[in-house]
Amino acid sequence: MSISSRFAVGIHILSLLEINKGGVSSSEYIANSVNTNPVVIRKIMGMLKNAGLVNVRPGIAGAELARDLSEITLLDVYKAVNVVQEKELFGVHDSPNPACLVGRNIQNTIGPLFSEAQLAMEKSLGNVTIEEVVKDLLKKENQNKVDD
Amino acid sequence: MSISSRFAVGIHILSLLEINKGGVSSSEYIANSVNTNPVVIRKIMGMLKNAGLVNVRPGIAGAELARDLSEITLLDVYKAVNVVQEKELFGVHDSPNPACLVGRNIQNTIGPLFSEAQLAMEKSLGNVTIEEVVKDLLKKENQNKVDD
DNA sequence: TTACATGTAATAATATAAGTTACAACTATC
DNA sequence: GATAGTTGTAACTTATATTATTACATGTAA
Asked: Is any atom of strand D within 7 angstroms of residue B6's beta carbon?
């Protein structure tokens, strides 16, 4: 099981918008970098737009960042692309037997524990900005040049 | 997206083994409490057995805990039932375009960030033992009695 | 030998993800 | 205003994973 790659693609898109700031970032252009279909990009872009992270308009080619990169965290992207619902990272079997002590209490006992673990993960995502991601992309790019 | 309920069921099973310590916990008995099919229980039980958490033997009815409850954490169960592979909680789009600066570096940049978030979640699970779960189950049971 | 349990393979039903096609709605420009 | 090119979106396909279920081999105790 893995969380949908929409999240990774969302990060890819925002990074690309920054690095291609001079040019026009159409869905086709972005799809070429991500290596997927332009429609997939437009769907994800729509989510990023709803979350106020990018500006896109029908008929007009190219998307732009709606906020400073230092004010967009991975958690913002994660929430924007809707990959995991609140308190639902961990699936729980429904309708356990109410005639059993464990069955009638397990959900209430497990729920908070699962929420806490999910929040710990999300907090970690909230500590990283897209600005840092872009800086690291450029750093890795330069490292590779030196290696050649 | 949700992590397979095998994890929740695994916790349910271990708790039930403790609370039903006096009786015989056959796969049918457990399935009745979880509200699922006995085969599902046997499959999960097999994973718990491989991880050294329970003792079960072919032909002999009933399973038993293989360790003290205070020495089994939620993380142990999570790993036992194999719901998330190492470093694979977050899906990443494969083969992004190597001709693009972002495309050829995004995986190496994102990877460690995703791993860190996953580890934060897993660390949280490692802080809770099944013993605590059982205590909370009993506590909630008594609270409900008072409410009646 | 019988009754009953676990182990496991095979299958079906369901849900979600990701890719794709098709087309409506919109904008700029000629 | 007609055209070319873009975004927005619905519909469909394919692939994969989960969960439930059936069937049966294997193992144990009485």
From this structure: yes
CA–CA dist B40, A5 (Å, integer): 29
Decide if B69 contacts B58 (C-beta within 8 A).
no
Task: Please report which helix (H) or strand (E) contains residue B62, including its range.
Answer: strand B60-65
Q: Tokens 């790659």 identify what position?
A: A5
Contact B106 A19 (CB under 8 A): no
Instruction: State the DSSP code for B88.
Output: -
Separation of alpha carbons A48 and A82, rounded Å: 10
Proximity of residue B96 CB to strand C below 7 A: no
- Angstrom CA distances, A112 to A12, A88, A116, stand at 33, 11, 6
| A146 pLDDT more than 90 | no
Cβ of residue B120 near strand C, that is under 7 Å?
A: no
**Min distance A60 CA to chain B CA atoms (Å):** 23
**pLDDT class of B106 with cuts at 50, 70, 90:** very high
Q: What is the pTM of this model?
A: 0.94
List the A43 CA – C18 C1' distance (angstroms): 12
pLDDT at A110 over 90: yes
Q: How far off is chain B from A3, nearest CA to CA, in Å?
A: 5
- Residue A137 is predicted with a pLDDT of 98
First to last CA, chain B: 37
Both tokens assigned to A83 = 């990959």
Instruction: Tell me: pLDDT of A18 over 90.
Output: yes
First to last CA, chain A: 37
